[in-house]
Amino acid sequence: MTGTDATSPSSAPPSSSFRLAYVPGATPAKWVRIWNERLPDVPLTLLSMTPAEAFDALREGTADAGLVRLPVDRDDLSAIPLYTETTVVVVPKDHLFAAVEEVSAEDLADELVLHPLDDTLGWDRPPGRPAMERPATTADAIELVAAGVGVLAVPQSLARLHHRKDLTYRTLVGVPQSRVALSWPAADEAPDLVEEFIGIVRGRTVNSTRGRRAEEKKGQKQPKQQKAAKPARTGKPGGGSRTAGRPSASRKGGGGAGRSGKPRRGRG
User: What HEC string does the chain produce?
Assistant: First the structure.
């Protein structure tokens, strides 16, 4: 992947590049690849941040845009939803849930469900029995699940991010889901490079992408297509005579050729 993967806003490059913050679980790799193909002269720098750090970076101008989780404060930030994640429950591999494909919120009634302080599902209280203390981070909660203390509900991307050989996860239904969005500082009109990235994440083609590249193309005069010259009208084979190419009619009398092409014999 082209670009520098930084861990703090202070390491962000000059504004000549496009600085994209992203929170844990967000996967910008596909869009970064398309960016590098379409705008090879504009480096895209990735900034890995916590949700709080990402929002601060957008407000402070140390990131041009960010892949964040909703909700977004619309007072000073703009955002467009990109996709909704599947919620899963993370359990030890020998847990009863590992034998099924799907778990419901009601199935968690007797389980101790961990609720980390950096929870991304936005619920006030998860289903099941609450723990005495809330883990500080999702990573801490994963460690407690591995120790057999409880189970954890998270977006599927975070379950993959914190994958362990002794843990597994199953789809969890009937619970909130996390939505990932692209956010940038609020303005009457998105900056050109932000508009370029919006076009990429929305699947616009190169020709339909709005922003700096599109404006450059508008200013370029496209060469006019010359009409193909019409072929000259030619007569029928054998020249312009209407009778050209036709066999000569036989003459009456005389020694003209007959229909068979043989000379006629005169009468003696």
Answer: CCCCEECCHHHCCCCCCEEEEECCCCCCHHHHHHHHHHCCCCCEEEEECCHHHHHHHHHHCCCCEEEEECCCCCCCEEEEEEEECCEEEEEECCCHHHHCCEEEHHHHCCCEEECCCCCCCCCCCCCCEECCCCCCCHHHHHHHHHCCCCEEEEEHHHHHHCCCCCEEEEEEECCCCCEEEEEEECCCCCCHHHHHHHHHHCCCCCCCCCCHHHHHHHHCCCCCCCCCCCCCCCCCCCCCCCCCCCCCCCCCCCCCECCCCCECCCCC
- For each successive 10 residues of the chain (268 residues), what is the average pLDDT? 47 68 96 96 96 96 97 94 97 97 97 96 92 95 97 98 97 97 93 96 77 53 54 52 46 46 47
Two structure tokens written together for 200: 């990429």
